Amino acid sequence: MEYAARRNQKGAFEGFYKLIMRRNSVYVTFIIAGAFFGERAVDYGVHKLWESKNVGKRYEDISVLGQRPVEE
């Protein structure tokens, strides 16, 4: 009896399947967009982590490097 009641409930995966995985074109687009935005998020996070761990060691942080003397 309990099994029959659970079969009639819709789970999260069934909703995900109906929304994303029913058509191949939508599924492939979801995967490609997820990979693109996931890569951007990881790149941003690693970049910020690297910058926070290397404060004072970067080229931009050293005041005498990269500056040309002003010619008058």
Automatic annotation (TrEMBL):
InterPro entries, A to Z: QCR9, QCR9_sf
GO cellular component: mitochondrial inner membrane; respiratory chain complex III
Domain of life of the organism encoding this protein: Eukaryota
GO biological process: mitochondrial electron transport, ubiquinol to cytochrome c
SUPFAM superfamilies given in the database record: Subunit X (non-heme 7 kDa protein) of cytochrome bc1 complex (Ubiquinol-cytochrome c reductase)
Keywords: Electron transport, Membrane, Mitochondrion, Mitochondrion inner membrane, Respiratory chain, Transmembrane, Transmembrane helix, Transport
Location relative to the cell: Mitochondrion inner membrane
Protein family according to the UniProt entry: Belongs to the UQCR10/QCR9 family.
Record's keyword annotation contains Membrane: yes
Function as written in the Swiss-Prot or TrEMBL entry: Component of the ubiquinol-cytochrome c oxidoreductase, a multisubunit transmembrane complex that is part of the mitochondrial electron transport chain which drives oxidative phosphorylation. The complex plays an important role in the uptake of multiple carbon sources present in different host niches.
Protein name: Complex III subunit 9
Membrane protein topology class: Single-pass membrane protein
